[in-house]
Protein 1
Amino acid sequence: MNKRDAVLSLLDDDRQSYIPAGFFIHFYPDCHFGQAAVNKHLEYFRYTGMDLVKIQYERNFPHQPEIQTPADWEKLPLYQKEFFQPQLEAVAGLVKAAQKEAVVIVTLYSAFMCTGQASGGLITEHLQQDPEKAKKGIEIAAESLMVFVKECIKLGVDGFYASTQGREAPRFADPTLFDTYIKPYDLYLMEEINRTCIFNVLHICDYHYGYNDLTPFLDYPGHVVNCNLKLASKEMTAREVAEMFGRPYMGGLDRKGIIATGSRDEIKQEVERVLCIAPDKFMLAADCTLPGDVNWDNIKTAIDTAHAYRR
């Protein structure tokens, strides 16, 4: 079974024997765009032996210092293809170079996350102050991201690693702010990629805060779900999350845990422990992006252990 088949087999009814694996890192700024990004992604993919190519998204929304109040969000620029062109060059190159051997997916940040980039995080405060005015920024960001999504689809990507934030436990005292002003724009983008792509990952991102409830995401599209297994004071299992969402689970390792700091033997033992209790449809990964200074040999060890494991 080649790498592409191994990943797509997650969506088949047949029982897995080969466990695919993939871990993701941000590369140095001089490898963010164009051919330099293509070369670095391919170097990392081939060195570690991972089973899919996930293209890191690095074209963050520029900070807009004039956005200081909820009413200011109407000033957020609507970005067109030209803004995303450096990132699209990397997408085009990696689809051409790697798609015959691996599934190629693109990181997609949510509109809420991009408004956070544009305002230094003020979007959270503004949604609490005047959500009807602040949602204009999320709406504009979603339209900009839809331009990026459609261009990536034209280039032939297999799917997206679609991230969501905003429903973390400490984020809003009133969780309906997420339901009313963030989730609809998540779904606007995710439903588009779900209509046209064969392999999308729903990533419930805990980069800033943790979660105490995953049920708001049960109706999100995505062929595979990726999230941290820690839920409030409870530690869920990968099998529980897979059953909860009714789809394969991708994850199992703490991004800041043994894979980042452990010895070769410790990494092998932890991966084997995870695989022993994994659900029937499972891809080994971390709960989010690994630290940028992680030793690539640690990642290779984890992936080699998954590939050698037999159920």
Note: Strands lie at 52-55, 103-108, 159-164, 201-204, 224-227, 230-231, 234-235, 249-253, 282-286.
Protein 2
Amino acid sequence: MADAKPYLSVIIPVYNEEESLPGLGEELSAVMESLQKPYEVILVDDGSTDSSFAGIQDLTKRYQGFRGVRLGRNVGQTAAVSAGIAQAHGEIIGMLDADRQNDPKDIPMLLAKFDEGYDVVSGWRKDRQDPGLTRVLPSRIANGIISWATGVHLHDYGCTLKLYRAVYLKSVRLYGEMHRFIPAFAGFLGARIVEVPVNHRARALGVSKYGLGRTFKVILDLMTVKFMDSYMAKPIYLFGGSGLLMGGLGVLMACYTLYHKFHDHVFVKDQPLFQVSIFFALAGLQLLLLGLVAEILIRVYFDIKDKPPYFIRETVGFN
């Protein structure tokens, strides 16, 4: 099954998880073989400083269908996921954490949902085994904000265990920390999305790589995602609209100032509102010009040659 063209590709970003890899390989291999479908498992070493890549090499020798990708340095989970997507050949592409908190036994349940016509099947850690104050609460707040901003409503954007039809992943460019927004990107393309409760296990080995600081990165990246959804093709609508609004307010304040001058005989120099109106008019003009520059840049963006945000040092297990 592992030698044929894969039906399912599973991507696993790995960063300093040498202790978890042996158990992960044994557990995941058993599940993949039980599917009775061609598969591949792509483990992407994101510049680990321990012996994680040696562990990945061992897994590729021990289990058929396991592949390894080693990045030149640590570039983050999003770039590691992007590298895995580029190497994947499956009709369905799934993702899984290397820390073994996701349960591979849930994969067949998620895979069955594609027979119902769905394009994205998202795991939902309904009974999450993480610290409530530092992990669960910020995650719930972030999920609510992301769902509201993108219009793609999910309980758990942060759950790595998700399956996608490959066509919705191959066309997506991922930068920054945007791997968590992949369901939203697929939703923008018209994908049918369903969310399924999955098992979540407490971390038994290794140290968590996630911290409270990631919440602020999520908020900043969400602004980019919203821009890409609503204004990517026509940024002049955002910048130009804001510029016209500020310019219009500047004109109204200037007219109000002139009214006071000629009707109430109040000199312009005695009215601070006139200076504010000048500021608004200049800011509006700058936003209009920024919108025009953005229009030019976006056309350059669509024309330039793709350049991935990662460098692959070596691969193992690939034909």
Note: The chain has two domains: 8-230, 236-299.
Protein 3
Amino acid sequence: MRVAYFPFTQEAADQVRKAGFSLESLLDKSSFASVRNRAADRVLGSLRGEIPDNRPRREAENFVELFSYPLSRLIVSCLNDDYLIRRYVLAEAKLAYKRMQSEKEEIIFLANDLGLHPLHSAETFRVHFSEYIKAAHHMRSPKWKLINRDLKDGYLTITAEELMRLMQELVRDRIIKGLPVPLEDELCKSLNEYIIPLRLELDKLRSKQNLNLIRVEEEAYPPCIKALMAQIFAGQNPAHSARFALTSFLLKINMSPDQVVTLFNNSPDFDEEQTRYQVKHISGSSGTMYKPPSCGAMMTYGNCVGKDNLCKMISHPLGYYQRKIKLGN
């Protein structure tokens, strides 16, 4: 296996340990500047949606790729931002998935490292249901549900593409483990050359995201929707009923499903595939577009934050919004 392509593996960790370089030398010596630059590049790429796939060809490039991964975890930990951590973990997992597709001869070895032990049969693989459940538990699309898979003698049949998707999920689980790493302030200060520009990029991304999501009609939102938006932007985790109310409301006022998915990026338990599936389902992908709950239902589920004067005259959040728009906010 090309260890530097998959630096989250046990073999990669063993190679890093055997090399015996001190953390101080990685952080300070000019000979390791390329490692620090690539580590920062990994984090910056995650903020922008994709880590550049700098595939190492020479021994020196293998070294840079291998050691930049643990150093990027330190940089992410110094920034200590939940939103960044989620984006970083997802981007590393996507990079691994991309590399799996061109390294298929290594797929069994890599799967074993991640805790999967697939049996290869012609063009398909067989995976034990217990390992399948562990890998697929975050995946909410119906095709991944155990009831929709063929199960025989405790094994499921999956394609090579499906195996790699399961492995991507296991990569995410492995990479997020231990993040953020507890670090001394002095260590983070030694990385300020890289951390400060990344923090500025993170702040810029947050500002842009908020501007894209807060529509010009924001002042027309009823108090309950404003409160839920504030919770999301604060990185809080609203109840399922509150998420449904917010999603269905925003879709009804013509916010796109992609915009709604991006909004939930701030949630601490954000899972992009699950969120996208749920948002599209509410938007009508299954044939029925769900309506936002009425004021009465919002009160029943504890999602009403108190009525203002206009609330007392209407019975539905959409009615509030439409009245506000008509009155010019």
Note: DSSP finds 16 helices and four strands in the chain.
